[in-house]
Structures are given as C-alpha cells and as structure tokens.
Write a structure and sequence with these properties.
By secondary structure, the protein is α+β, with helices and mostly antiparallel strands. The chain has 20 helices and 34 strands. Strands 22, 23, 24, 27, 28, 29, 32 and 34 form an eight-stranded mixed sheet that branches. A seven-stranded antiparallel sheet has the order 4-14-15-16-21-18-19. Helix 4 packs parallel to helix 6, helix 6 runs parallel beside helix 9 and helix 9 packs antiparallel against helix 10. The N and C termini lie far apart (71 Å).
Length: 658
C-alpha cells in the first residue's frame, strides 16, 4: 500500500486512509487543564493515593516491580498505577509526579529485546500478595501501550514510535501461534485497548502492516459485535466479567474505523440498551460484582468498572460524536465515580451499591468470585481486591483530558462539561485559549471566555457544543446577546469570527425527572445527577487483626445514624416540579462530593415502610411499586442529595400511594 499524507493541524491527527475519518480529534496531553472543583479532585489525587502509591503499597509498587526490572509483581498493577499517574502528572504539570513516572517509562522503552517484545520476561515462584507469573502475557503490555501513547502525546519522544513499530511487528508475527488468550483470557476480552494504539501509530507512521495486525487482533478478540446483536450475553447473569465488559464495549466501534460497517455501530448501541435493561443501576453502571449480576440495587458495581467504562466512552465519543455516549460518561463520572473513594483519596471501595445502607465487613450476595472475606464494600487501601487500588487513578485525569476535542472542520468541541481551560489551534493554525467557567453539574450555566494572542485580532472557526438528551431546551448567547435556543440530544455548531474577550454562554435548564428500575422502583434525577436519600453516617476505623497482609492493616466501616426505609409518593409527571423542591447553596464548596458539602439538595415527601428492614447488612428485598395496602407511616419531609455526595443511600426508591 502506498503511504498517504497524514492530515495534521498543529499536531491534531485525523485518521489516515483507508481508515474512516472521525468527527472529533484528541488534543495533546497537557492542552486541557482542570479548574474549580475538578482541579481540587486532581490535587486530592496528587496528595492522596495516586501520588503516594509507591509508599502506601510498596509490596507491588516498589523497585521490585517487574516493570522496573525487579523480581516482584510482573503483571497489571504497576502499569495500572502509571496509566493514571502519568496523565495526572502532565495535566497538573507537576515535576514531582512526572519524575515518579519516568523510571517506569524509561525501563519499558529500554527493555525492548531484539525480537521486538518488551517488558518482563521471567516468571518467579509464588509469593503472597503479588503476581509473579505470566510475565509474557499480552494483557499487561496493553496497559503499557496506553501509557506510552500518553507519554508521547505529552513529550513527542520518538523512541515511543520506534518501540511500538517493532513491538507491533512482533505481535503480527507471534499472534498466529501465540494468540491473545495464550497465557490468560484477559487479553482476549480487552484487546480493544491494544487495537486503539495500533490505529494511533498507523496515523502517525502509515505503516501498512499495522492494518493487517488490526484485522488479526480483531479476529482473536472476543466477538462483542455478535454477542451484543444476536446473543444473550447481557441478559444472562454471570455471562461475562464486569470489567472485561466495561473495557470491551468499545472494541466494535474502534474496529469500525477500519471497517465502517453499520453492524459495529449498531452492536454498541444495542449493547448499552440491553446492559441498562437487564443490569442497569441508577448511578449509570450495572450490577457486576465480579461477573454480570442483574439490576437489584443491592448488587455491587466495581470501581474498575467505573473508570474503564469511562475510558471506553471517552474512546468512542470522538469516533461517533454521539450525544448519548457523552451523557453516559457524565452519568458515571458525576455519580458512580466520586462516591467510591474517600475525600482524601487514600481509601477506596471495591464494590458500591445503588441502595447501600451498611458499609461493613460482611458476606453479601455477590457473584461467585465477589466476596473477599466480606471486605468488598468497606473503604480501605486493599479491601476487596487490589486491582482497584492500582486502577482507580485514571478516572478523573482521563475525564479531564476528554472534556475538549479538536474537530474535523478545524474548530473546537466542548462535548463534556466541567470547569477547565483549553489551549488549542483552530482554523489554519491560530492558537486560542478558552476558559470554561462553570459549577456544572450542580448548576445550569456554563461560560466560555475566549482569548487570542495579542497579534491576532480575530479568527473564524466552528465551536461545537453538546446539548444533553435530558435538556428540553438550551439557550445560547454571545457577549450577553441571545443567539439561539436548541432542543436536547444534538451537537450545535456555531461558526463565526471570534475575538479576544468574546464570551459564549450556554444554559442547560435542569428539570426533575424519574427513571424506573428493579421491582418498578424509581430514581429521582435532575440534569446529569441522580439523587439519593440523605442518611447520616457513623464512620468507624477498624484495625484488621484477621488478615492484614491481604486486605490492609485498617479499613473503614460506615453505619447509618438516621432512618433509611422510605418510599416516595406516587404522582404524575406534571406534579414533580411542585413535589420536589430544589435548594442550592449560595457558595459552591471547593470540594463538593460529601454529605455536608452537597451544593444542591432536593426536599420532598416520603413514607416509612416498617416491613422493609435490614437483611445481611443490606436493605431487604425492595417492595414492589406499587403494592396495594402496604403498611406505611405518615408522610414526612425527606432530603435528597446528589448520589456522588453520598456514602449511605437509597437511590432506587419503592413507591407508595399518597
């Protein structure tokens, strides 16, 4: 195949033929910076476990790690950590954090052997707490490919391109006899991560063998396309590992870039719909406490599922430009993600429950591999399983990195919203800085302030804005003057000449709405946020004398100090705005994600259900809505807070008659 000229606009790379052009293009790592509450999240990561995991978890993250050349852990956990630490370091432009990533990057690059393979190459005898075998497995290398891609994006270090070219030639030669599931089954389900980097390198180098490798890799990957379109994968419990699913959801659409057949796009659309139907939960994820496990709100959802599903959505959004994928990304980021780590980002929860009223060490009804001596819902560094200790760090940094995109028509796109600043090139190479000033998702208003360099008077470019599906009618103004209104579920493109000081203002009016779930329960939602019953918390730090080597020296349990067994009142949709009173704090907290700092609350009426009690340190079976003659208490005022601000919660409520 003849090499074709790559389209580059100041380092923004469009797909090279014969790949299908994408509507949106990645910006380099470091072009987008967090502001406001989002910056606070990143700083808490820096000062918490993300910035200190080498000290907190030395058994795995020390010099003994195989990805530093040692005889310790050879597998995924070290790369997982760096996959979150590296983007955090470059987004914050933090020299200390960057220096922590350098030994890992340098060792990976310098470890490449003559045959093209790289990384650990020797297995060691079993040692408790670390994974010292399967050193040649394809899977952990896929995580390192993601790290190297990000590192190149931030530094343009050409050694990365040389390493990847040689490694992908090695893969092409070896995969026929050493397939993806040669050592473990994980790579077969997660090869979409590998495939993404193959296409990324092809766009930079034009090496035609990479397309041959992509076809081979797709054939060896689990067939998500057929499973979503024709099978019962998502309606059958325990059919697939929950994190494999979160990572694999993107593979058909990644491959779609090379073979733009509608079946690949349609399979992902149907996959998300079926996942919601059979396993969906109010926080935006699904019952997956190790394997897929239905939609009962007491089933667990893994922290790795949250960050990997976010990355999958971030990966398919620029390929498709679909509003629903951005909506789903915000749903997971603003609801599921913040509640699974403590405020100081030093402890995390392996599984969260949509209805969670006791965070205790207790065996629960989780899937066959999903009970780790009862520690799964406790907050700790190593409770549950240590993969999340290592993998949780990519969530907020990669979310930040995917707030903005360059566009195929030489403009900029704000497809996901949070306080931030972007520096990018538009038009024929003019640099523009845009500050996104907002308290979204807690407030409706978003302001974009443009700045050009002093030598540039004006520049024409298209500005793409997403109008979420939940928004009935958005309003857009420029410099205080109304421009237009727009219905939800679309991308609005504003093409004009822009000058320094221009302010584009987007208002996304948020209304109360409900969704139906397991046993006809309902969730209360407003904008991108799900709301949950405010339950007072009693935290208790536990010294682990039973198995500290496995689950950590300490962990936290949380018990309720207020009642939780409330039903909401049945009503028509037209009554919602009157029955649910929204109250906002005058001052936006620097850190919004806890019980006391909730920036917005909703007051409504509910009734206690005396027969709905604890079972197995969980809510008992949720009463079906609506049961005729169900015994309830009198109407009481109850308070709802954003789901992401809760630790204990009811977010899927039974409904009772007034």
């Amino acid at each position: 195949m003849a090499q074709q000229k790559v389209t580059v606009v100041k380092s923004y790379i469009q797909n090279r033929l014969p790949l299908r052009p994408n509507p949106y293009l990645e910006l380099p790592l470091g072009a987008i910076h967090a502001e406001g509450w989002l910056k606070e999240m990143l700083l808490r990561q820096k000062n918490g476990a993300t910035g200190q995991l080498d000290k907190l978890y030395p058994l795995v993250m020390s010099h003994r790690n195989g990805w530093l050349g040692g005889d310790g852990d050879q597998w995924e956990r070290g790369p997982y950590w760096i996959d979150g630490l590296l983007p955090l370091a470059y987004i914050l432009n933090d020299k200390e954090l960057i220096s922590k990533t350098k030994p890992w990057v340098e060792w990976a690059i310098q470890s490449q052997r003559e045959d093209g393979n790289f990384g650990p190459a020797k297995d060691y005898p079993y040692e408790p707490g670390i994974q010292r075998d399967n050193s040649l497995d394809w899977w952990p290398r896929m995580v390192v490919l993601k790290i190297l891609k990000q590192y190149y994006s931030a530094t343009s270090d050409r050694r990365v391109l040389d390493l990847l070219t040689r490694y992908f030639r090695y893969q092409l030669k070896q995969l026929p006899s050493q397939p993806l599931d040669r050592w473990t089954f994980w790579a077969r389900y997660r090869a979409g991560d590998n495939l993404m980097v193959v296409y990324w390198l092809y766009n930079l180098t034009g090496e035609s063998f990479l397309l041959e490798l992509a076809d081979l890799m797709h054939k060896q990957t689990f067939d998500y396309t057929t499973a979503f379109l024709e099978g019962n994968l998502l309606s059958q419990q325990s059919s697939i590992h929950c994190v494999n699913l979160a990572q694999g959801m993107k593979e058909p659409l990644i491959y779609y870039q090379q073979h733009p057949e509608q079946k690949y796009a349609e399979s992902v659309t149907k996959g998300f719909a079926d996942l919601r139907k059979y396993n969906g939960l109010a926080h935006g994820l699904y019952g997956g406490d190790e394997t897929l496990h239905g939609n009962n709100p007491t089933q667990g959802s893994e922290l790795c599922s949250a960050v990997e599903m976010m990355f999958s959505l971030e990966s398919i959004l620029p390929v498709t430009g679909r509003v629903s994928y951005a909506d789903q990304l915000e749903k997971v980021a603003f609801n599921a993600l913040p509640t699974q780590a403590t405020d100081d980002y030093m402890n995390r929860q392996y599984f969260q429950q949509a209805n969670q009223v006791m965070v205790t060490r207790h065996i629960r009804n989780f899937a066959e591999d999903g009970n780790h001596q009862g520690t799964d819902v406790c907050y700790g560094l190593l409770t549950g399983f240590a993969c999340c200790t290592s993998n949780m760090h990519q969530g907020w940094p990669k979310f930040t990195q995917n707030l903005w995109y360059a566009t195929a028509d030489k403009g900029l796109a704000a497809l996901v919203y949070a306080p931030s600043e972007v520096k990018a090139y538009v038009g024929e190479g003019t640099q523009v800085t845009i500050q996104e000033q907002t308290q979204y998702p807690f407030r409706e208003n978003i302001q974009f302030k443009l700045t050009l360099d002093k030598k540039t008077k004006a520049v024409s470019f298209p500005f793409h804005l997403r109008i979420p599906q939940w928004c009935k009618r958005a309003t857009i103004s420029i410099n205080g003057k109304p421009l237009r209104e727009a219905d939800g579920n679309q991308i609005v493109v504003i093409s004009r000449e822009w000058k320094s000081g221009d302010v584009l203002e987007l208002t996304l009016p948020m209304h109360i709405f409900r969704n139906r779930w397991h046993e006809n329960s309902i969730s209360v939602e407003r904008g991108p946020l799900t709301y949950a019953l405010r339950i007072e918390e009693q935290w208790n730090k536990v010294t682990n004398k039973k198995d500290p080597d496995v689950y950590g020296d300490t962990y936290y349990e949380v018990r309720p100090k207020s009642e939780w067994n409330y039903a909401l009142l049945a009503m028509d949709d037209k009554e919602l705005e009157q029955a649910f009173r929204v109250e906002q704090k005058e001052q936006m907290p620097v850190y919004p994600w806890n019980l006391d700092n909730a920036p917005v609350i909703i007051r409504t009426k509910g009734k206690k259900i005396p027969s709905w009690g604890l079972y197995n340190d969980m809510t008992g079976p949720i009463p079906f809505s609506v049961i005729y003659g169900l015994e309830t208490g009198p109407e009481e005022e109850i308070t709802l807070i954003p789901y992401g601000c809760s630790v204990l919660r009811i977010s899927q409520f039974p409904v009772t008659a007034k």
